[in-house]
Amino acid sequence: MTYQNPQLLFGLFAIAIPILIHLFNFRKHKTVYFSSIRFLKEIKTNNNRKRNIRNLLILISRIFAITFLVLAFAKPYIPIDKNKTPTNKVFIYIDNSFSMNAISKEGRLLDVAKNKAINITDSYSSACMYYLITNSFLKTHNKGYNDQDFIEAVSNIEATPHYKSLSEIINFKKTISAQEDHIYIISDLQKKTLKIEENNEEAKDNFFIIPIINKKTSNISIDSVWINSPMLINSNNQDIYTIISNFSNQKQEIPISLKVNEKTKIKQLLTIKEGTREELKFRIAIDSAINICQLSINNYPITFDNDIYFNLNKRSKIKILNIKQSIGLDYIKNLYSNDTSNYQYQEASISNLNYKELKEQNVIILNEINELSSGLNNAIINFVNTGGTIIIIPPTEIDYELYKELLTSLGTDYFIEPDTNEYFIKSTQINHPIFNKVFDGSIRNISYPKINYHYKTSSLTQTNKKSLYVLENNSIFLSHYNKDKGNIYLFNTPLNDSMSVFKKHALFVPTFLNIATTSVQQGKIYYTISNNNYFISENNINNKIYHLKNINSDIVPTTRTINGQTRYYTNNQIFKSGQYKLYDNEKIIDHISYNYNTIESEYTYYNSIELKKYFNTKNTMVINENISNINQIINNKLNDHHYWKICLLLVLIFFGIEILLLKLIKT
């Protein structure tokens, strides 16, 4: 306890005055004569006892009254921590993510949070500077506001698809001030976004946690949409998959619809059980090169996760280069050249090969090449490292050392010696992507082709080999390897007529077609709005200025080339989900879809026990009171606790007790 006027405590010596009055009763007595005093003695005895009790109570009330009167003038108070200097910077984080659009009894959660933030300014001096932190990553928030400008900035806050973790909030604060300041967290405290437990650094700042929680947490959301096929093939029906989640505790029936190019393809009523995630599959006909799609449900009041926009666009043709000893008709040319809508096939002889054309291909076939130069080896390795697919078919007369040099550089097994025995293929790894939709049901009774000649290979243990076709002697007929972004498909047998009948078998066509098809990925059918987000677009030229547009925005993305891939960064300029068009001047060259992150669709909050676990309780206060009490709570935390008003009130109480004792108790 500390006093503003400690010198006035000498006034406590005034307590001696009522004590002296009590000890020496200076009141004069008047003598009255009676003929008999027998009854007066009895009355005197009773009155003396009553008078003594009353006088003692009066003395006590006077002592207390004088004591608290002196204390009131001395102004006692309990100071705040003397080791901490008063702050002149206050950081206020307002969670304006989409989950704050929920409605509570007090209104929209975001509006409640904004009101609480404004009320905080009443607890600080006019010289204090306020720093606003939101999820919008606005550069204007790097500067400090006075109280009036801060109120205006808070009133302009709107919901955003972005969110921030606690560590990001603290790091942002450190860029402005390294001192011990006050940080307010006004949020619904969702676990998946705030991520308090991931902040390992013990901050010395004073934290004020103000939960804004909506108790009604039921919601239904579209989690994701995807396709299983690596790319869109012309004249094919397309399967579209989606997951719908019901986060409520009741079974729900909701309408769901799918639009393609503004035409409703599917519309049905979906029943989903409480607390479950349901996977759905829709099949639509892909009858256009560009398919702008929107999958929607109707669910309120949380609506940001009711729609997913995506595009099913047919990309450019798959480029296939068949490198042979000499140009001529063969089984591979007949296969790919018959489908000019999906494949761009060309062939070249090993003696007249343009190495610059290799990097422009999607698939390269080394078709029974007898000689491999170091230049070709280097070109093939670079091609695979940047995401290309190589099919290697060995020749009948093979140079083992040349092929060993290439295959070991690619990280595969290499050929050792021939095996001239006849074997049938006995098994297939049907779960591999190249066999997707090839087999329907059991394959026990399939008639496999016969192989007359094959090469035995090494058995390296550090490869990622997948055995696609296995012979009866457990040798591999076709194996698949991954290297960086690329793929290597290695046949152990020449595919000419004298060595095998595989090219005449029914498995030949789907094997080669699907190897080519899986070599080109569809890419993302949509992107999620996030920090430092980028998208990928084909056939665009670097160092050109492109525009990403929709009805409400016009964004100029910046480009970066990473590992041979051109990325277009939007620099946090996309805030709304929907369909966007990529322009080269006035020409539309691509369609890009953006959707909100659905991480906040499921409501899971931190409780008070968890907050105490992850925060230093000495420097943290959780404020659960209503708006009207926030200032009082903050003032008690920030300011000295003064008690002179209480002392003055006690003075009046004890003087009142004295008056009552004098008036009501007669002696």
Report on this structure.
The chain has 667 residues and is of the alpha/beta class. Helices cover 24% and strands 29% of the residues. The protein is elongated, with a radius of gyration of 42 Å. The strands form nine sheets. The chain has a nine-stranded mixed β-sheet. A five-stranded parallel β-sheet has the order 6-3-7-8-35, sandwiched between helices. A hairpin with a 2-residue loop joins strand 31 (558-562) and strand 32 (565-569). Helix 1 runs antiparallel to helix 2, helix 2 (38-74) runs antiparallel to helix 13 (644-664) and helix 3 (109-120) packs parallel to helix 12. It is built from 13 helices and 36 strands. The chain starts with a strand and ends with a helix. The protein folds into four domains: 2-79 and 643-664, no CATH class; 89-215 and 604-638, 3-Layer(aba) Sandwich (Rossmann fold), CATH 3.40.50; 220-313, Immunoglobulin-like (Sandwich), CATH 2.60.40.10; 318-519, Rossmann fold (3-Layer(aba) Sandwich), CATH 3.40.50.880. The mean pLDDT is 83.
